[in-house]
Amino acid sequence: MTTLKGVGDSLAQRLSKLGVETVQDLLFLLPLRYEDRTCVVPIGSLRSGERAVVEGDVQLAEVVFRRRRQLLVRLADGSGFLTLRFFYFTAQQQQQLQRGVRLHCYGEARRGTLGLEIVHPEYRRADSADAQRTEDSLTPVYPMTEGIQQGRLRILTALALAQAESHAVRDWLPTELLEGEGLPSLSDALVYVHRPPPGADLETLIGGLHPAQRRLAYEELLAHQLSLRLLRDEIRSDPAWPLDASQTLAAQLRASLPFSPTGAQERALQEVLLDLGKPSPMLRLVQGDVGSGKTLVAALAALSAVEAGFQVALMAPTELLAEQHHQNFERWLKPLGLPVALLSGRLTGRARQTTLDAIAAGAEVPIVIGTHALFQEGVRFGRLALVIIDEQHRFGVEQRRALRDKGLGDGRVPHQLIMTATPIPRTLAMTAYADLDVSVIDELPPGRTPVKTVVLAETRRDEVVARIEAACREGRQAYWVCPLIEESDELDYQAAEATHAALVSALPNARVGLVHGRLPGAKKQGVMAAFKRHEFDLLVATTVIEVGVDVPNASLMVIENAERMGLAQLHQLRGRVGRGAAESTCVLLYRAPLSQLARSRLDVMRSTNDGFEVSRRDLELRGPGEVLGTRQTGLLQLKVADLSRDSDLLPRVQAAAEVMIARHPDNIGPLLRRWIGTRDRYGRV
Ligand code: ADP
Ligand code: MG
Question: Is the pTM of this model over 0.90?
Answer without folding.
Answer: no
